[in-house]
Design goal:
By secondary structure, the chain is mostly helical. It has one domain (6-115): Homeodomain-like (Arc Repressor Mutant, subunit A, Orthogonal Bundle), CATH 1.10.10.60. The chain has helices at residues 6-19, 27-34, 38-49, 53-71, 76-82, 88-99, 103-108, 121-128, 136-143.
Length: 144
């Protein structure tokens, strides 16, 4: 059996943050996902990825919040809760540090979401589908 490189265990925790950033995640939960002690996990995570697990989680949450501010009309408080943060004041402060603007000012710098119509992927795919199909099932459906 080939040993797994240590960074591979850290990627499990990083993937967990990327997938479940909304959930209340702490260092212990992330360390468990990486099969490491909390202290060792924190040191190795920082050494490997250049930031603490907490900072990485906060960055993912703020990136998602920025996308929601640009693309939706949800309130700032609703976005704060949606991305997994509990304090609107802390969210506003952290967002301002990361993006240089308050969430409201950041949203104002982009056109309103209502002016952009989003077409669902399923509709785009159906529209782009070729008109003449060569599937045998289609022949049987036309003949029946």
């Amino acid at each position: 059996m080939t040993p797994v490189p240590p960074a591979r265990h850290l990627l499990r925790a990083k993937d967990l943050v990327d997938a479940r950033y909304r959930d209340p995640l702490d260092v212990q939960a992330l360390a468990s996902a990486a099969h490491l002690s909390a202290a060792h996990f924190s040191r190795e995570f920082r050494r490997t990825f250049g930031e603490s697990p907490h900072q990485y989680l906060l960055t993912r949450r703020l990136e998602r919040a920025a996308a929601l501010l640009r693309n939706t009309d949800r309130s700032v408080a609703e976005i704060c809760v949606t991305v997994g943060l509990r304090s609107l004041g802390s969210f506003t402060t952290s967002f301002g540090r990361a993006y240089g603007l308050s969430p409201t000012a950041y949203r104002a710098a982009y056109p309103p979401a209502a002016t952009r119509v989003r077409i669902p992927t399923c509709v785009q795919q159906a529209y782009a589908r070729p008109q003449s199909s060569t599937f045998r099932e289609d022949r049987y459906a036309r003949a029946g």
